[in-house]
Amino acid sequence: MKSFLVALVWLCLGLTAPGQAAGKWVATPYAPARVMFEFYLDDPQKIGSALYWVRSLMNPLQEAPYNYSPEDHKIVVVIHGTEIVTVAKKNEAKYQEAVDRMRYYADLGVVFKVCGQAAADYGYAVQDFQDFIEVVPNAVTELAHWQQQGYALIIPQILGKTIDIESIR
User: Fold this and answer.
1) pLDDT of 45-99, one tens digit each?
2) For a FRET experiment, which of 29, 71, 75, 76 has its CA 20 to 30 Å from that of 105?
3) How far apart are CA 76 and CA 74, in angstroms?
4) Would 164 be classed as within a structural domain?
5) Contact 84, 114 (CB under 8 A)
6) What distance in Å separates the CA atoms of residue 50 and residue 44, rounded to the nearest whole number?
7) DSSP state string for 89-122
8) CATH of the domain at 139
9) Are 77 and 39 in contact (CB under 8 A)?
Protein backbone atom coordinates (compact mmCIF):
# COMPACT_ATOMS: atom_id res chain seq x y z
CA MET A 1 0.00 0.00 0.00
CA LYS A 2 2.85 2.36 0.89
CA SER A 3 4.53 1.86 -2.53
CA PHE A 4 1.21 2.58 -4.23
CA LEU A 5 0.86 5.89 -2.33
CA VAL A 6 4.47 6.88 -3.15
CA ALA A 7 3.87 6.12 -6.84
CA LEU A 8 0.63 8.12 -6.74
CA VAL A 9 2.40 11.15 -5.20
CA TRP A 10 5.16 10.95 -7.85
CA LEU A 11 2.54 10.70 -10.57
CA CYS A 12 0.59 13.67 -9.20
CA LEU A 13 3.76 15.74 -9.08
CA GLY A 14 4.51 14.81 -12.70
CA LEU A 15 7.71 13.02 -11.80
CA THR A 16 8.94 9.69 -13.07
CA ALA A 17 9.10 6.85 -10.62
CA PRO A 18 12.43 6.38 -8.89
CA GLY A 19 14.57 3.78 -10.59
CA GLN A 20 12.96 4.35 -13.98
CA ALA A 21 15.84 5.14 -16.31
CA ALA A 22 15.56 7.60 -19.18
CA GLY A 23 17.20 7.57 -22.58
CA LYS A 24 20.39 9.51 -23.15
CA TRP A 25 21.90 11.33 -26.12
CA VAL A 26 25.04 9.75 -27.57
CA ALA A 27 27.23 11.44 -30.16
CA THR A 28 28.76 8.48 -32.00
CA PRO A 29 32.23 9.45 -33.31
CA TYR A 30 31.31 9.33 -37.02
CA ALA A 31 33.91 9.64 -39.76
CA PRO A 32 33.17 11.42 -43.04
CA ALA A 33 30.76 9.43 -45.19
CA ARG A 34 32.08 6.92 -47.70
CA VAL A 35 28.76 5.64 -48.99
CA MET A 36 27.06 4.36 -52.11
CA PHE A 37 23.29 4.57 -52.45
CA GLU A 38 21.48 2.12 -54.69
CA PHE A 39 18.32 3.60 -56.19
CA TYR A 40 16.20 0.87 -57.78
CA LEU A 41 12.68 2.18 -57.40
CA ASP A 42 9.40 0.81 -58.69
CA ASP A 43 7.93 4.29 -59.24
CA PRO A 44 9.85 7.38 -60.42
CA GLN A 45 7.78 9.53 -58.04
CA LYS A 46 9.64 7.87 -55.15
CA ILE A 47 12.90 9.59 -56.13
CA GLY A 48 12.09 12.48 -53.76
CA SER A 49 11.84 10.11 -50.80
CA ALA A 50 15.05 8.33 -51.82
CA LEU A 51 16.86 11.68 -51.96
CA TYR A 52 15.87 12.29 -48.33
CA TRP A 53 18.14 9.37 -47.46
CA VAL A 54 21.06 11.30 -48.97
CA ARG A 55 20.05 14.37 -46.96
CA SER A 56 19.68 12.26 -43.81
CA LEU A 57 23.25 11.09 -44.21
CA MET A 58 24.81 14.45 -45.04
CA ASN A 59 23.03 16.92 -42.77
CA PRO A 60 23.92 15.46 -39.34
CA LEU A 61 27.56 15.08 -40.38
CA GLN A 62 27.75 18.75 -41.34
CA GLU A 63 26.38 19.88 -37.96
CA ALA A 64 28.01 19.92 -34.52
CA PRO A 65 29.76 18.02 -33.13
CA TYR A 66 31.05 16.66 -36.47
CA ASN A 67 31.19 19.82 -38.62
CA TYR A 68 32.34 18.02 -41.75
CA SER A 69 32.15 19.96 -44.99
CA PRO A 70 30.48 18.40 -48.05
CA GLU A 71 33.92 17.96 -49.61
CA ASP A 72 34.86 15.58 -46.77
CA HIS A 73 32.32 13.01 -47.95
CA LYS A 74 32.53 10.50 -50.75
CA ILE A 75 28.96 9.72 -51.82
CA VAL A 76 27.86 7.88 -54.96
CA VAL A 77 24.26 7.29 -56.07
CA VAL A 78 23.71 4.47 -58.56
CA ILE A 79 20.39 4.77 -60.41
CA HIS A 80 18.95 1.78 -62.27
CA GLY A 81 15.19 1.55 -61.68
CA THR A 82 12.20 3.44 -63.05
CA GLU A 83 13.66 6.63 -61.55
CA ILE A 84 15.99 6.76 -64.57
CA VAL A 85 13.30 8.81 -66.30
CA THR A 86 13.74 11.59 -63.72
CA VAL A 87 17.25 12.41 -64.95
CA ALA A 88 16.43 12.38 -68.67
CA LYS A 89 16.62 15.95 -69.98
CA LYS A 90 13.31 15.60 -71.83
CA ASN A 91 11.54 14.94 -68.48
CA GLU A 92 13.11 17.82 -66.55
CA ALA A 93 9.90 19.86 -66.28
CA LYS A 94 7.96 16.85 -64.96
CA TYR A 95 10.58 16.06 -62.30
CA GLN A 96 11.94 19.58 -61.75
CA GLU A 97 12.00 19.42 -57.95
CA ALA A 98 13.94 16.14 -57.94
CA VAL A 99 16.32 17.37 -60.65
CA ASP A 100 16.99 20.56 -58.67
CA ARG A 101 17.71 18.55 -55.52
CA MET A 102 20.04 16.17 -57.35
CA ARG A 103 21.85 19.08 -58.98
CA TYR A 104 22.24 20.69 -55.53
CA TYR A 105 23.76 17.48 -54.13
CA ALA A 106 25.95 17.08 -57.21
CA ASP A 107 27.26 20.61 -56.60
CA LEU A 108 28.17 19.44 -53.07
CA GLY A 109 30.16 16.53 -54.52
CA VAL A 110 27.62 13.69 -54.65
CA VAL A 111 28.21 11.64 -57.80
CA PHE A 112 25.12 10.39 -59.67
CA LYS A 113 25.56 7.38 -61.96
CA VAL A 114 23.02 5.74 -64.28
CA CYS A 115 23.20 2.14 -65.46
CA GLY A 116 23.93 2.12 -69.18
CA GLN A 117 22.09 -1.17 -69.72
CA ALA A 118 18.95 0.10 -68.00
CA ALA A 119 19.22 3.40 -69.89
CA ALA A 120 19.29 1.49 -73.17
CA ASP A 121 16.19 -0.46 -72.08
CA TYR A 122 14.42 2.89 -71.71
CA GLY A 123 15.72 4.04 -75.10
CA TYR A 124 18.14 6.61 -73.66
CA ALA A 125 21.68 7.43 -74.77
CA VAL A 126 24.37 9.30 -72.79
CA GLN A 127 23.42 12.66 -74.32
CA ASP A 128 19.81 12.25 -73.12
CA PHE A 129 20.77 12.77 -69.46
CA GLN A 130 21.31 15.81 -67.25
CA ASP A 131 24.85 17.18 -67.21
CA PHE A 132 25.51 15.96 -63.65
CA ILE A 133 24.85 12.31 -64.62
CA GLU A 134 27.59 9.80 -65.37
CA VAL A 135 26.49 6.78 -67.39
CA VAL A 136 28.28 3.55 -66.42
CA PRO A 137 28.20 0.19 -68.23
CA ASN A 138 26.19 -1.67 -65.61
CA ALA A 139 24.68 -0.87 -62.19
CA VAL A 140 25.42 -4.22 -60.56
CA THR A 141 29.07 -4.10 -61.65
CA GLU A 142 29.26 -0.51 -60.41
CA LEU A 143 27.78 -1.48 -57.04
CA ALA A 144 30.33 -4.27 -56.66
CA HIS A 145 33.17 -1.92 -57.63
CA TRP A 146 32.34 0.71 -55.01
CA GLN A 147 31.87 -1.88 -52.29
CA GLN A 148 35.31 -3.28 -53.14
CA GLN A 149 36.63 0.27 -52.66
CA GLY A 150 35.28 0.26 -49.09
CA TYR A 151 32.04 2.19 -49.63
CA ALA A 152 29.09 1.25 -47.43
CA LEU A 153 25.96 0.28 -49.37
CA ILE A 154 22.67 1.93 -48.45
CA ILE A 155 19.49 0.88 -50.23
CA PRO A 156 16.64 3.29 -49.42
CA GLN A 157 13.42 1.55 -48.51
CA ILE A 158 10.53 3.69 -49.71
CA LEU A 159 7.32 2.47 -48.13
CA GLY A 160 3.80 3.80 -48.27
CA LYS A 161 2.77 5.30 -44.95
CA THR A 162 -0.44 3.61 -43.79
CA ILE A 163 -0.57 4.79 -40.18
CA ASP A 164 -0.17 8.37 -39.02
CA ILE A 165 2.27 8.98 -36.19
CA GLU A 166 -0.28 10.65 -33.93
CA SER A 167 -2.51 7.58 -33.84
CA ILE A 168 0.28 5.25 -32.67
CA ARG A 169 2.14 7.40 -30.13
Assistant:
1) 999 999 999 999 999 999 999 999 999 999 999 999 999 999 999 999 999 999 9
2) 29
3) 7
4) no
5) yes
6) 10
7) GGGTTTTHHHHHHHHHHHHTT-EEEEEHHHHHHT
8) 3.40.1260.10
9) yes
